[in-house]
Structures are given as C-alpha cells and as structure tokens.
Amino acid sequence: MRRLALLAAPALAMLALPGAAFAHPKLLSSNPAPNTAVAKPTTLTLTFSEELVGPLSGIELVMTGMPGMANHAPMPIKGFKTAAAGKVLTVTLPRALPAGSYNLKWHAVAADQHRIEGQYAFTVR
Known about the structure:
Blueprint: H1 2-16, E1 27-31, E2 37-38, E3 43-48, E4 58-65, E5 75-76, E6 81-85, E7 88-92, E8 100-109, E9 115-124
Parallel strand pairs: 2-9
Antiparallel strand pairs: 1-3, 3-7, 4-5, 4-8, 6-7, 8-9
C-alpha cells in the first residue's frame, strides 16, 4: 500500500500544477488569413496564444501555383527574415509576393519547449 502511495504522489502533484504549464501555442490569427486572396504582401504576421521562443519558431513558404502556368512545380520562397516579438511572428519578405497560390507551413515553440506545427494556404492576386 505504501508503495502505491509513493507512486501516486508524483502523479497527483502533476495534476495540481496550473494548466498553463501544459499548454501549447495555438495560432490565433494571421495576415494573410487562411484561404484568403490578398494584394502582393511584403510582410506576413502570425499571432499565437503564447509568447514564442524566437530562434525556434519560423515558417516555410512555397508557391504552389502561378496564373497561366498549368502544372506549376512547387517553388520554395527564400530570402525572408523571421522575427518573434512576444506572441507575434513577423516574416519580412525581400520583395512583394507575385500573383499565385501559396502554402505556408509554420512551427512555433513557447516556454514549454514543445514544437507545434501547422499550415494553411492563401492566394496573392
């Protein structure tokens, strides 16, 4: 019985900790927003539910389609700068994105050090 009590004590202590210790960052909003069409952006922003660890958070951006080009091969966008300030991840592009469809994959790390990932698509007109 005593052994069971010794094993149960750490589990009960973990349950008593605040829920925030087990939270993960969630994407609350973004610009451009998922499944929207925007005019040639030069900056992208993603806002999360928790403060980010900047060096461990970022994006991958791929152009997946271009007007007038059937069977456009996916083309990674390079040369952008990413900065995290608080809960906001800002991506500064070297130039405005050309017209086409894009897939944005993000990864975010908050104080709990767990990497959370997601993705969404948008269009530039």
